[in-house]
Amino acid sequence: MKVLYVTSEALPFMASGGLGDVAGSLPQALRKRLIGCRVVMPLYDTIKQELKDKMTFIANISVPVAWRRQYCGIFQAKHEGVIYYFIDNQYYFKRDTIYGHYDDAERFTFFARAVLEILPVVDFKPDIIHCNDWQSALTPVFYSAFYSKDPWYYGIKTVFTIHNIQYQGTYGMELVGDVIGLTPETAGLVEYDGDVNFMKGAIECANKVTTVSPSYANEILDPWYSHGLDTILRERQWKLQGILNGIDVINYDPETDKAIAKNYTVKDVKKGKAICKADLQKELGLPERADVPVIGIVSRLVSHKGLDLIKGILDELLYTTDVQFAIVGSGDWQYENFFKEMAAKYPDKMGVKIGFIPSLARKVYAGADLFLMPSKSEPCGLSQMVALRYGTVPIVRETGGLRDSITDSGDGEGNGFTFKTYNAHDMFGAIRRGLDAYANAEYWDTLVNRAIECDYSWGKSASEYIKMYKQVIGE
Q1: What's the pLDDT at 295?
Q2: Domains of the chain, each with CATH number or no CATH
Q3: How many beta carbons lie within 10 A of that of residue 437, not counting itself?
Q4: Exposed/middle/buried for residue 375 (C-beta within 10 Å: 0-12, 13-18, 19+)
Q5: Residues ≥6 apart with Cβ < 8 Å to 396
């Protein structure tokens, strides 16, 4: 079986969020299971030069973008056994950032069309083209409208994965003719509620639509989660499936991680985490106390991460409880300012670093005792799985991938603490139960060992993807 994995970002070349992590790990996991998976992504100017130096130029072609044709250079590189193709066009991709430009619709329309145009040139005809999020959502649309009856392309199936339904690629209908280049007969493929909607087009045209967790696949049928796409999703529910993401257990490994103060395994987790905890406290200017529970947060500081719940009870929690918080992240100014104010008010209990600091994030995963993720919505979430990998017990709201990966330890078998309703005091109760568990040394040791032994590697997820691929191609 041959798969082309289409993504706007992938580690180690470029990543801005969870998609980059997934695209950097899943193709490797598929390849190890004898799936011929190759990756295609834009050649951004901001990719590190040492990675560019390993790329080989293959050819250049011109790609139709509505009424015009644009230059497309094709480069190739190999990383960890996986072949990567890079779509080059400096007009579209020589930018300081990869998203957020006035012409993103045109940039990723070009990319989505180029994905199909390069295939005969690189002599790779996949059984499945697997697209991800709105940036590559037009590839299934273009295949359906222009390529499906072409003898060279005939028989290719398309899969589309929704990583975050909030970002859909919604624009005015004038783009249909001037940028996307669809005919009046095919314009309905991307029309939704009077607008062009890239993601709707993929949902309409792809043979299979997946999300990054089973619970999220159910949630996005509800208007509260769907950001307006619930109608088309319910109509196409027969092709919808959720597959839980995994994490890179080689990259996130407390036994080898060079960013943490002491490496450890499940056999010496207690000793190792004690050293990492003291190092984290020192790093954040907190008193180095072994007896106090540390709650970690590594997050974008935005509302849908549940920060308004934390804002509602944090002062009460810090005032009444012997606890420390270790917070790393950046985002909305209101949350950044709030956490800085709390750190000033409770300097012995709050350690805050504003910014995206990967090495410090790893210190939080290893040094904290509990890890808080009270998200309003969470398609999959990786942080809770990384926390488990380091023996840090998650406290999460039961939504999306958090619900599918964390179960409450009240049943004597769970790996964390959970709460259901989006309510600050329900979260407070889950935190209290976590702190009570920490105070019971024997129970806590059992829970930490249970957490670190959880397996959320990509192996299990890759097997589910392979089952889905076989279903799509009829094997």
Answers
A1: 98
A2: 2-246+459-473 (3.40.50.2000), 266-455 (3.40.50.2000)
A3: 21
A4: buried
A5: 372, 373, 374, 375, 381, 384, 402, 403, 406, 416, 417, 418
Q: Which one, of 49, 61, 51, lies nearest residue 11 by Cα?
A: 51
How does strand 350-354 pair with strand 324-329? Answer: parallel
Question: Helix or strand or coil: residue 71?
Answer: strand
CA distance 96 to 56: 23
DSSP of 143-158: IIIIITTSTTTTT-EE
Record the tokens describing residue 216, joined without a space.
């999220």
**Token digits of residue 157:** 């199936």
* HSE-CB for 68 with a 13 A CA cutoff: 8
284 contacts: CB under 8 Å, gap ≥ 6:
326, 351, 352, 353
Nearest to 352 by CA among 310, 385, 322, 393: 310
Residue 33 burial class via C-beta count within 10 angstroms: exposed 0-12, middle 13-18, buried 19 and up = middle
User: pLDDT by residue (tens digit) across 193-213?
Assistant: 999 999 999 999 999 999 999
**Residue ranges for the chain with pLDDT beneath 50:** none
